[in-house]
Write a structure and sequence with these properties.
With 160 residues, the chain is an alpha/beta fold. Helix content is 29%, strand content 16%. The protein has a single domain, classed as Alpha/beta knot (3-Layer(aba) Sandwich). The longest helix is centred in the last third of the chain and has 14 residues. The radius of gyration is 15 Å and the shape is globular.
């Protein structure tokens, strides 16, 4: 079964965030891509604690570098960059099922070459500018949740 979405973390720094994002991806039927270098080891206890026992069930792909990940993305793939630098707000109605959602590191964001390749595909979560940004795992959960709420994905929920 094809993943509902592809979630890409480019050079994530915080193991706990990645663990929670992995758990969200597993729960929502999404594939997680980790683009190295990571700011932690994949065996980090914080990653395992945040991902709990779901980590082995996660559809996970790892990429050695930004350039190897970028080369692996098919030209026809719909790609969206979530960035605090974007001029346009996130709008889930623009996104097709199966799209790729790309997030940068907690400390450095997305590299310029990623922005250049998908120029015009950057979106930001609209927040009060005094906050600067939100936690990475919260951003991934918000974007995936907004896609579910707008109806493009049906996740199995315990109350269904």
């Amino acid at each position: 079964m094809a993943p509902k979405y592809e979630v890409v973390l480019v050079r994530p720094d915080i193991a706990g965030n990645t663990g929670q994002i992995g758990r969200s991806c597993m729960a929502m039927g999404c594939r997680l891509h980790l683009v190295h270098p990571l700011g932690y080891q994949i065996t980090d206890a914080n990653l395992k604690r945040a991902g709990l026992d779901y980590w082995p069930q996660l559809d996970l792909k790892q990429h050695d570098s930004v350039s190897t990940w970028m080369a692996s993305v098919e030209p026809s793939r719909e790609v969206w960059l979530l960035s605090t630098k974007a001029a346009k707000d996130w709008n889930p109605s623009e996104v097709s099922a199966g799209a790729t959602l790309v997030f940068g590191s907690e400390t450095g964001g997305l590299p310029p070459d990623v922005h250049a390749k998908w120029a015009g595909r950057e979106r930001r979560i609209p927040i009060d500018v005094r906050a600067r940004s939100l936690n990475l795992s919260a951003c991934v959960a918000m974007t995936l949740g907004s896609l579910i709420l707008q109806g493009s994905v049906k996740a199995p929920l315990p109350y269904d």
